[in-house]
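#struct-help
A.M.: can someone run this one for me? Single chain, 252 residues.
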Amino acid sequence: MSEISYKYCRDCGDYRPVSDFTKNARSRDGLAFYCRDHLAERSLRSREARRTRPRVRREPPLDVAIPPGRKWCADCEQVLPLDDFVRTVATASGYGSYCKPCHNARSKKSRDKIGGSRTYHLTRRYGITAAEAEHMLTKQGGFCAICRKAPAGHVDHDHETGAVRALLCFNCNGGLGQFKDDPAVLRAAAEYIEVHRDRRRRSPAQPMRMHRSQVTARPAVRRNSVPPWAARRPHLLCSRGRARLGGLLGEG
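D.P.: on it. Structure tokens below:
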């Protein structure tokens, strides 16, 4: 049995005890996506749909010629180059049954059926739906589960088990990742902050003020002196400056 005591049922829209769920090896936590009651209802509807609307594999019409390097799309019923089809290892030809536009349309329809792109990505990455994420956000009051100040917009999960823990803000979620979810390091960091905060409280640092005697005065420039660069670039001096430079260097 799963380690968690409650699980979210997508049809109930709330958490229920794990004893209300059957096992499912394909799910991340080993339990079905729906509680027993709703799973039975869905199974009944699925069986009825298969009985009344059996799936028929669509084949190209006999009068349609398919030359080499081309393929017939079962949705738009066009013969298109193989590059217009998605690649897959599920078929012997290595290409899907639908061209890329039809494949994208079917994918969008499937995502909309389960609750949209957000549910699709949340389910694929974390095993939860958008409705479950909204439920968690409501339970947290809309704020991060750690700081309780910033809006919670990131799903936090255990990197070892994959189990979702809570919703966090960007900073708290990134902080846990930087500390590698190590409680000992997090406690040491908290103690470090508290020690230095207490030290600052007991002896607050004073802003540094330099005494006038500590300020280094700029050296006085003699009136008859020649700037240091003049020896390297005498051509930049006026005639009087060049004469003065020559007198200082002993020329003349």
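A.M.: thanks! The longest helix spans residues 183-202.
D.P.: also worth noting: DSSP finds seven helices and ten strands in the chain.
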